[in-house]
Amino acid sequence: VVPTPPEGTTAPFAELSADFIGSYPDPATRPEPQLPELAFIGRSNVGKSSLLNALTGRKGLARVSATPGKTQTMNVFQLPEFYLIDLPGYGFAKASKVNRAAYRRLVEGYFTRRETLTGVVWLLDSRHDPSKDDLAFQQLLADSGRPVLAVLTKADKLTRREQAERPAAIAAVLGVPDDQVQLVSAETGLGIADLGESILTAIRGESA
Ligand code: GTP
Ligand code: MG
Is the CB of 151 under 6 A from ligand 1? Predict the structure, then answer.
């Protein structure tokens, strides 16, 4: 049974005492025991590692960097009834063609074949419309058939008016209903508690 996060906390998984399990170059690696897992994916530098830290309330858990391409391997955190997986970002400008093809193969294999993959937290920068890379990735996600939580990051960089307007604008570009995108800020904690609830619902739905 996954404990319910205490109300009003901005780090919904703080009490689940996240454990760093390991860092694996090949996403086909299976951590033991096999548990439901949620993958965090998005463009390089979009804020995946920061979001993991905000959810767990542990600033240094996943490595954050202002330089895109910081996370190069699959990093696994156990929570303890499920795993959160920090994946390398896509669209890393400095990556070579060979690296891009290899990355796509690895991630594609992971999303289509991983039986324990319960859901995907897909991060998009709230300040920008989805990029070409994002839209290509949306197709890969759709093909994988996994439930996806679309999360719009860095909301603290938006004005109040933009905070009200950007989610619907981005949902329209993605062709999904407005309520299928969630605005968050790892910096201020905006939307983090709600996202925690959505994640627990996704995990419980699978393991129930
Ligand atoms: P890669 O591992 O390189 O793919 O990046 P990532 O997606 O894990 O991003 P990371 O969490 O390392 O954050 C990238 C940069 O964005 C860092 O400078 C963070 O401090 C910043 N950042 C992340 N989340 C937020 C946020 O909610 N608000 C603001 N203002 N900055 C953020
Ligand atoms: Mg990262």
Answer: no
The residue with tokens 């780090």 is: 11
Ranges of H-type helices in 59-191: 97-113, 132-144, 160-174
Do β-strands 19-24 and 74-78 pair in parallel, antiparallel, or remain unpaired?
Answer: antiparallel
pLDDT digits (tens, 9 = 90+) for 12-59: 888 888 889 998 877 778 889 999 999 999 998 999 999 999 999 988
Assess whether pLDDT exceeds 80 at residue 173: yes
Q: Determine which residue's CA is closest to atom 25 belonging to ligand 1.
A: 154
| Pocket lining: 127 vs ligand 1, CB cutoff 6 Å | no
Type of residue numbered 46: V
Q: Dihedrals φ, ψ of 181, to 5°?
A: -120, 140
For 153, phi and psi rounded to 5 degrees? -95, 170
Ligand having the closest approach to the CA of 123: 1
Nearest CA to ligand 1 atom 13: 47
Rounded Cα distance between 166 and 41, Å, is 20
Whether 185 is in the pocket of ligand 1, judged by its Cβ within 6 Å, is yes
Q: Whose CA is nearest to atom 17 of ligand 1?
A: 66
Instruction: Give 71-92 as a DSSP string.
Output: --SEEEEE-SSSEEEEPPPB--
Tens of pLDDT, residues 188-207? 999 999 999 999 998 887 54
Atom 28 (ligand 1) nearest CA: 154
pTM of the model: 0.89
